[in-house]
Amino acid sequence: MDLTPFLDRESNNPLNQQLIEFFKSNMHNGRIKKGMKLPSKRHLAKKLLISQTTVERAYDQLLAEGYILSKARSGIFADYEELFLIHSDPKTAELPVQDINVLTNEIIDFHYGHVDSSFFPFSAWRKSVVASLDKYSEKLCRPGDVLGEIELRSLITEYLYQSRGVNCDPNQIIIGASTSYLLQMLCHILNTGFKVGFEEPGYPRSREIFELNRKEIIPLPLDSEGLRMDAVKKNIPDLIYVTPSHQYPLGRIMTINRRLELLKWAADNQSYIIEDDYDGEFRYSGQPTPSLQALDRENRVIYLGTFSKSFLPTLRISYMILPQSLLKKATEVTTLFKQTVSSNNQYALAEFILNGEWQKHLNRMRKLYRKKRKIILEAVKNELGDKVNIHGENSGPRILIDVYLELSEQELIQKAENHGVRVYPVSDSYKKGSALKTMSLGFSGVSEEEIKRGIYLLSKSWGIK
User: Residues in domain HTH gntR-type (predicted)?
Assistant: First the structure.
C-alpha cells in the first residue's frame, strides 16, 4: 500500500505513537483491510523523512497487539478483521491489550455449512480436475445433458444404492446447482396448486422456496419419533417435505415405524414425499436407518441429496431423484431450465468418485467429525454446564444448545460476536415462533483448538464464567 501518514512534528505526541494511531484508525474504519500489505520499514521511513527506528517501534507495538503480522521474505500485512466501526482516537489507545485482542482476533464461526480447509483433499481433487479435462475434452466442447452428465448420474446411482439403499435408474436423477434450485424446478414439475406439509420447525430456505411459488405451507409438528402422523392425517397435504435422517434443525432421526407409517399414508392418499437427505452420510451411533426412498414400494418419494455438506459447498452440485411417474414432465421442465452445473465440475467429480477418492474423503471426514463432536460436547459440558441443554448430536456436523439465561436471543448472539464468536439461532426455522432460545453450533469448519477456544469465549461472553 502507498500510505502517507501525516505526522505533526510540533506535537508532544511521539512520532511512533502517531504512526500507531494512524494505522489503528484506518484499520478500525475499514480503509486498511485484513491481508493488505503494508510499506516496509525502510520505505516508510524514507518517505516520511523519519528514522527507521521510529517506524520499527510503531510496527513492533502493532505486532504485539495483533494488528499486523510479519511474514518472512514476504513483508508486513494487516491482520485486523474489522468487526466494528470503532472511531477510537484516542480511546483505542486506552483499551487494555486483552480487549484489543478480542477485537482483532479472527471470528470463530460455528456455521453449519463450512468445511475445514486443512482436511480437504485439494491435491486429489486437482488431479481429478486435470484428468477429467484430458478424458472428456471433446465432450466439453458441446452442450451438456440437461439432466446432468450420465457419467456422474450413473456413479451417484451406485453410491446411493450402496450407502443409503436408494433404488433408481440414472435417468431418474436430475443434477442441479443447489437444493433450492431443484425445489424451484420441482414446483414447475408439480405445476398444479398444492398444500405442502412442512416440518415445524424446518429448513427455512426450502419453506421460502415453496412460499415464493405461492404454495400453501401447512406446519406439521414433531415428536420424539419424527413427523406427527395425527397432524398429517388431519391436514392431508398434497406434498410433504421431511428431513428424516437428521431433522433440520432439531437433529432427530425418524424411527423406522414412523417412516413406514408415513409411506403408507402417502400411498393411500396419492401424495408425494420430499426426502431431503442433506447429510445422510454422517451418523455417530447405531446402524444407519434406510432412506425413505429405499423403503418406498409405491413410487411416492422424491429424494434430494447434495455434495455441499460432505464435500465442497462452493462446488454447487446437488441432485434430485424423481419417481417414474414424474419423468415426462421433468424432462420438459429441465429442457427449458437447462443445466446449471458446469460439465467440467461434473466430470471432475465423476473422476474423483471413480478413483476411490470420494470414499476415502468420506471416511476421513466421518473420523474427523466424530473427534470434533467429542471435543465440542466435552467443551460445552465443562464451560457452559447446566446453563444449556445439548441435543441434536447424534448425526451431522452440528449440535444444538438450549440456553437457560436471562438474555434475549439477540443479546446472546451479539455478546458472543463481541467476544469473537459467531453462533446461529434456530428461531428462523419456526413458522409460528418458539419460546426456546436455541443456538446451532456447527463444527465442520472450525479446528479442534478453535472449538475449545470458542466455547470458552461463549461462557465468558454470556457471563457464565
Answer: 13-81
Among residues 260, 270, 253, which one has the least CA distance to residue 323?
270
With beta carbons less than 8 A apart as the criterion, state whether 419 and 84 touch.
Answer: no
| Three-state secondary structure string covering 356-409 | CHHHHHHHHHHHHHHHHHHHHHHHHHHHCHHHEEEECCCECCEEEEEECCCCCH
Cell numbers 432412506 correspond to what residue?
291
State whether 366 and 285 are in the same domain.
no
Contact 291, 164 (CB under 8 A): yes
Instruction: Give CA–CA dist 413/408, Å, rounded.
Output: 9
Query: Can you give the residue range of the structural domain that contains 51?
Result: 15-91
Of 338, 357, 376, which residue constitutes the final position of a domain? 357
pLDDT tens figures, 95-130: 333 333 344 457 899 998 787 777 888 899 999 999
Tens digit of each residue's pLDDT (9 = 90 or more) over 58-87: 998 888 788 898 888 888 998 876 554 434
Indicate the average pLDDT of the chain: 87
- In this predicted structure, the answer to whether residue 2 has a pLDDT above a threshold of 70 is no
In a domain, residue 175? The reply is yes
Residues 6+ apart with CB under 8 A from 425: 409, 413, 437, 438, 439, 440
pLDDT of residue 114: 81
| 178 and 301 belong to one structural domain | yes
Looking at residues 178-205, what average pLDDT do you find? 90
In a domain, 371, yes or no: yes
**Is residue 193 pLDDT above 70, yes or no?**
no
How many structural domains compose the chain? 3
Please write down the HEC assignment for all residues of 101-125. HHHHCCCEECCCCCCCHHHCCHHHH
- Is the domain of 302 the same as that of 416? no
- Kindly provide the b/e burial profile for residues 371-391, where b requires at least 16 CB atoms within 10 angstroms of the residue's own CB: ebbebbbebbeebbeebbeee
CA-wise closest residue to 221 among 232, 233, 205, 211: 232
Give, as one character, the DSSP assignment of residue 283: B
**Biggest alpha carbon–alpha carbon distance for the chain:** 88
Which domain CATH number covers 241?
3.40.640.10
Give, in order, the Cα–Cα distances in Å from 153 to each of 149, 299, 317, 384: 6, 19, 11, 45
pLDDT tens-digit series, residues 274-284: 999 987 677 76
Assess if residue 102 is contained within a domain.
Answer: no
% of residues, the chain, pLDDT over 90: 55
- Could you tell me the pLDDT band of residue 10, with boundaries at 50, 70 and 90? confident
Task: List the CATH number of the domain containing 389.
Answer: 3.90.1150.10
| Length of the chain (residues) | 465
Q: Are 358 and 155 in contact (CB under 8 A)?
A: no
Residues 305 and 336 in one domain: yes
